[in-house]
Amino acid sequence: MAACTVNSAPKPDPAARVCDTRVLCLGNELLRDDSLGPVVAGRLRPYANADTEVVSTPETGFHLLDYILNTRHLVVVDSVLTGKAPVGTIYVLRDSELNVVVGGSPHYVGLYESLVLARRLDLPVAKEVVIVAVEIDDCSTLGGEMDSALRAAIPEVIRIVQSMMIEADKPSVGN
């Protein structure tokens, strides 16, 4: 497997990077429970090999296109507020299992819409997308400590993502 490389471009950017596996951690470190993504990214980076890139961003909307392209495997870590499960509940699903919310994402254009657009435009979007989402109860409080139940879920989230990183490194049958 080739190491992550930057395509020739005047200024390297996330969309120009080519990686076998990209772990995209979404969230805003300034917001209480939404800071899950940046925290997980910081803890995962030491475990990433040359074929894996761990990225953290607070960006939303079509800016996500910069992160979902040019990788074979995409693992997305994000917080989710459904109100249907206790804080710290971990969901693992494929992008094909996502349900579109009528009225769109709270970010107006979200991950799902960015994936659909990239595929319709025949852009080099990840063939395999897995989302690891963790239930929160506060996505808007500026500052403060992360909910203790959410904090307690972080080691399991890291274990799940690490196992996906290891699985993605295994050669595919027939390749």
Description:
The longest helix has 22 residues. The protein contains 4 helices and 6 strands; from the N terminus they run ββαβαββαβα. The protein has 175 residues and is an alpha/beta fold. It is 26% helix and 23% strand. The chain has a single domain, classed as Rossmann fold. Helix 1 packs across helix 4. Strand 2, helix 1 and strand 3 form a beta-alpha-beta unit. About 5% of the residues have low confidence. Strands 1, 2, 3, 4, 5 and 6 form a 6-stranded mixed beta sheet that branches.
Pick out its properties.
175 residues; Rossmann fold; 6 strands; 23% strand
> What's the overall geometry?
globular
The helix content, as a percent range, equals 25-40%
Rg, rounded, reads 16 Å
Total beta strands: 6
Ends apart, CA distance between termini: 11 Å
How would you characterize the largest beta sheet? 6 strands, mixed
Order of helices and strands: EEHEHEEHEH
Our count of domains comes out at 1
